[in-house]
Amino acid sequence: MDTPQITAPPCAQPGSSPGPNGGPLGVTPTSGVIHVNTRHVSGFTVIGNHLAQHRELSLVAIGLAAHIQSLPAGAKVGIKVLTDRFPESEARIAAALRELEAEGYLHRSRVRLPEGRVVTRTISYNQPGSIDVPKAPAPRPRLAAAAPPQAAPPEPVQRPAPAPVPAATAPSAPPPPPLPQPHAPAEGLHRTALTLLAGLRRHAPALTLSESDVRALAPGVATWLERDAHPDAIRHALTADLPVPLKHPAKLLRHRITARLPAPLPGTTDLTAPRRKVVVVPLQNCETCERAFRATEPGHCRDCRTDLLEAA
Known about the structure:
- The protein is an alpha+beta fold.
- The protein contains nine helices and six strands; from the N terminus they run ββααααββααααββα.
- The protein has helices spanning 49-52, 59-70, 79-85, 90-102, 187-198, 211-226, 231-239, 249-259, 302-311, and strands at 16-18, 24-27, 106-112, 118-124, 283-285, 292-294.
- A two-stranded antiparallel sheet has the order 1-2. Strands 3-4 form a two-stranded antiparallel ribbon.
- A hairpin with a 5-residue loop joins strand 1 and strand 2 (24-27).
- It is elongated.
């Protein structure tokens, strides 16, 4: 009778939520993330918290490392392949790969195949530092065959050195053509040009311009707008087919604004027929009655001319 008998199950902890079988899942936090985990039985990849919660890596680098670790052996992980797979630009993906190399999650090396082609070999480490990074074997020294003794070479004949030929002066490059300027500067066109240039980086991140570059290129874009070019057409002409990598975005935009400037549309004055010139006959004072009349030369008015003819 001294042994205690347990006749009821223990109560759940305060704040706990029931599990799928009626048991407690654990204490539910009052804020922050709440995990609902389902056990994977196939198609999963184990990622260490040292990667998922890395303090120095960017989110792009962490996500890229998780993607590479989930790929099968032999999968292509070049920058071009990753750019086609994800919406990030080549510059962001290349920077993320360099981050992973610096932290020991990746090792890339150039390897020459037996047929002579050079490829990039990428090794992914799910635990940096667990295995030493392979190093290329050092070339084995080759023993040169002993050369047979030869006779001493004859002494070279001293020849006078040729006179130095002055180098031809390279022709200087012609200066670039001036940036187009609007015929009638308007505040509205200038403001629209500034907005269009500053917003180019939303469509092409490589065209991120400084404030001084935007102000310098604005008159050229205002000239396009003055010639009735639509802002969408201007944006397409400036962002299409950009070179990779783009080192000088402002110089490229200046060239495109100048070289691709559309011709001005014909105005209404060019389509109207020329008007006849109107000749104004001056006023004259009659020499007899002082009445004003129109004539090319001074004389008499019509009435006085009639009286003179009748008197004659």
